[in-house]
């Protein structure tokens, strides 16, 4: 019997579809156990919605969404829902800086004032230069003064990044507050996690690139990676797809919620045992934590990192630069890379990544560059415990036997 070419093609396609379907079924069965864990975690931690994804060097291996993105409209969480991702944003600011470093336009060890038209120094150590390397390793001696927390407000920022940095970090500025944005330690002397330095880094990128920081990121990171619905400002994204951040009102945190009432609607009643929606807020120091994206688009970023800085033939960083970011940078420090840091799983395995937390949101992005497995989680509530209870289990389910 003669088999026609057309029949062979159809047979091959049928076999391919069958294999693909079996792989999907196998993946769902493999991760079925995590569904119960996540749902129990959501109930225990009072979380309206949760999204989890496993990423490998090819893309998303498994994902699932749980609960609601908006309680009042009964909108379910989904992979394309957009949310501000907190301090995971710092890794994008770092990528932008390292792109300029690759081109020889940014010296990580130079005084930051080389790139500015104002002078920024720690007033208690005015002869000690502050460097980009120190910013990337949280050793710059710049910290979060009173102005930082007070700067959160509904809507997009109402002042430029340039103006914000001048007013907070330059002596005599409106928010300088006697230098409370600086620690008593000298630059390079002590590691202390801080957000403010990344606003300064964003401004340095603006000055070197000669364009606004958000625009630079769009054309040099987001669009090359296919992150078309990602942006630093609300005006850059589809707000109808934005996940609503929530606070759960308890006796312990009610006073703090009321103190930050400006981040909630005027109709918010803050009744005990209820969820109160935050407004879609911002802050002028935005390069430290205000990126808005989805789990799906964030997975493109992870795939590029797992493939040494390249996705679909488009290179955003050299492989050696990615390796530099994901390597220990400080003596007597076992976790700090360039912004990225390691965190140990229960079996001692170290993952590289970053977490994010802000009013009404918690995010995690961690991966192993050796076995090329990554974990992403989004939740529209500010709560702890996600890494040991969820990220750890997801990675252990995904890793090779």
Describe the fold and architecture.
- This protein is of the alpha+beta class.
- The protein has a single domain, classed as DD-peptidase/beta-lactamase superfamily (Beta-lactamase), CATH 3.40.710.10.
- Helices cover 34% and strands 17% of the residues.
- The chain contains twelve helices and 15 strands.
- The protein has helices at residues 5-30, 32-45, 89-102, 132-136, 146-150, 161-169, 196-209, 213-222, 254-259, 295-306, 319-325, 386-398; strands at 49-56, 59-70, 75-76, 83-84, 153-154, 246-248, 275-277, 281-282, 292-293, 310-311, 314-315, 341-344, 350-358, 361-368, 373-379.
- Strand 2 (59-70) and strand 3 form a beta hairpin.
- Helix 2 runs antiparallel to helix 12 and helix 3 (89-102) packs across helix 8.
- The two termini are 44 Å apart.
- The model has no long low-confidence stretch (mean pLDDT 94).
- Residues 34-384 form the Beta-lactamase-related domain.
Corresponding CATH architecture: 3-Layer(aba) Sandwich
Query: What structural class do the secondary elements suggest?
Result: alpha+beta
Strand coverage percent: 15-25%
Main sheet strand line-up: 3-2-1-15-14-13-12
Fraction of residues in helices?
25-40%
- The CATH class label is Alpha Beta
Mean pLDDT: 94
- Main beta sheet: 7 strands, antiparallel
What is the overall silhouette? globular
The total count of helices amounts to 12
**Beta-strand segment tally:** 15
Query: What's the multimeric state?
Result: single chain
């Amino acid at each position: 019997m003669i088999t026609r070419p057309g029949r062979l093609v159809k047979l091959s396609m049928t076999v391919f579809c069958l294999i693909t379907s079996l792989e999907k079924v196998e993946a769902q069965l493999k991760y079925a156990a995590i569904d119960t864990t996540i749902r129990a975690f959501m109930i225990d931690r009072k979380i309206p919605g949760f999204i989890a994804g496993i990423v490998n060097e090819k893309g998303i291996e498994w994902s699932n969404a749980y609960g609601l993105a908006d309680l009042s409209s009964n909108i379910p969480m989904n992979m394309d829902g957009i949310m501000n991702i907190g301090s995971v944003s710092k890794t994008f600011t770092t990528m932008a800086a390292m792109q300029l470093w690759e081109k020889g336009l940014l010296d990580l060890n130079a005084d930051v004032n080389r790139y500015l038209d104002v002078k920024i120094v720690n007033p208690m150590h005015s002869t000690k230069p502050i460097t980009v390397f120190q910013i990337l390793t949280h050793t710059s001696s710049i910290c979060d003064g009173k102005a930082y927390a007070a700067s959160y407000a509904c809507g997009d920022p109402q002042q430029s990044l340039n103006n914000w940095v001048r007013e907070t970090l330059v002596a005599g500025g409106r928010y300088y507050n006697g230098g409370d944005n600086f620690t008593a330690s000298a630059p390079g002397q002590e590691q202390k996690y801080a957000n403010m330095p990344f606003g300064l880094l964003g401004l340095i990128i603006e000055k070197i690139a000669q364009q606004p920081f958000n625009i630079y990121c769009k054309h040099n990171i987001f669009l090359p990676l296919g992150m078309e619905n990602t942006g630093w400002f609300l005006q850059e994204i589809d707000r109808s797809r934005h996940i609503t951040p929530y606070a759960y009102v308890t006796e312990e945190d009610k006073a703090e919620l009321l103190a930050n009432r400006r981040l909630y609607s005027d109709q918010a009643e803050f009744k005990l045992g209820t969820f109160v929606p935050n407004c879609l807020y911002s802050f002028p120091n935005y390069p430290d934590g205000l990126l808005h994206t989805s789990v799906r688009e964030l997975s493109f970023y992870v795939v590029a990192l797992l493939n040494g800085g390249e996705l679909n033939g488009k290179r955003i960083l050299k492989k050696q630069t990615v390796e530099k970011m994901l390597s220990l940078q400080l003596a007597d420090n076992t976790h700090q890379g360039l912004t990225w840091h390691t965190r140990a799983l229960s079996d001692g395995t170290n993952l590289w990544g970053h977490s994010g937390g802000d009013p009404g949101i918690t995010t995690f992005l961690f991966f192993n560059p050796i076995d090329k497995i990554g974990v992403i989680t989004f939740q529209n509530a500010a709560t702890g415990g996600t890494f040991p209870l969820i990220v750890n289990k997801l990675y252990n389910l995904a890793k090779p036997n």
